[in-house]
Design brief:
Layout (H helix, E strand, L loop, with lengths): L3 E6 L3 H13 L6 E4 L2 H11 L5 E6 L8 H9 L7 E7 L4 H7 L5 E6 L4 H11 L2
Helix pairs in contact: 2-3
Amino acid sequence: MSKQHVFFVDDDLIAIMILKKVLEKCDLHASSLSFKNGKEALDYFQSNYSSTDHYVIFLDINMPVMNGWEFLDALSAFTVPEKTTVFLVTSSVDEADIIRAKQYPFVSRFLSKPVSVATVNELKVMFND
């Protein structure tokens, strides 16, 4: 049976807390895991990945140890793009980053910090697929 997993990968614990509250406010109560850098998330993902499950990842770009780009490169090596949805959550959206993100088939879109209720309501359809 397929399960849905939600990961928050961000070194800013307050940003994660705010995003979780916004998701709850929008009636998206999926169980989730939080990681403070890409390496922690990748280690967990590699050990627990199932090609039949669906993964929703809210990913910061700038983090210590392993940044968002390095995480995406590593994730590309083994994930099923149709079963993985990544939202890049960032405080600044550089046009070069948007162009770079398009090389990853599972990156859905950029979300500006802090993520609003209105933005999450637009994304609800992706959680219900």
